[in-house]
Please model this.
Amino acid sequence: MKISKAMELVEPQLTKERYEHSLRVAKTARYLAKLYDGPEEKAELAGVLHDYAKYRSLEKMAEEIKTFNLPADLLDFHSELWHAPIGAILVEEECGLKDEDIQYAIRYHTTGRANMSKLEKIIFLADYIEPGRNFPGIEEVREVAETNLEYACWLAVRNTINYLISKRAKVYPDTFHAYNDLSKHINGGNE
Ligand code: DGI
Ligand code: FE
Ligand code: FE
Model:
């Protein structure tokens, strides 16, 4: 799929702000792919498409978690998590994009998971550090993103877990799995 086609398909699904966020994620993802010898075209496409399902109604998504056979435990966690796995399926169903690498990157862009592919890490990190974002501690993540993809992802997951805990929110198991898995890249990973 051409990037212009993906943009055309995504734009009507999103608000103007969210669409612009998606374009910044695409640009950041392409930059990271070049830096880390990843798939640049796929990174850009996945960036454009990653939030495709962001504004789908909660009723529809709750239904689709069942009909698409997605993990039922998603329903016990914040609905913010749903757009990622549902978007990964909808880009195929509604846009005709059948590309496992891109679909995994979309599926895990919110939580991460253990054993993320390079493309999954790139999208996860690009979504966190795109220039429109402003989280506490983001400058450190942006700096580390220039030299160490795994460490930057670890920092992003750690910050997200800390944020969720400070809000007394639940943390989805894949988020912990991402944290634990990425820990092997820091401190020798044995602590
Ligand atoms: O869709 P975006 O806003 O661009 O970004 P995103 O898909 O990374 O979603 C971010 C939100 O998801 C943010 O409010 C934190 C939340 N989140 C990430 N991991 C978890 C989580 N929320 C819960 N409850 N549990 C998680 O593990
Ligand atoms: Fe998202
Ligand atoms: Fe996003």
The pocket of fe (iii) ion (ligand 2) is lined by residues 50-51, 54, 83-84, 109-110 (CB under 6 Å).
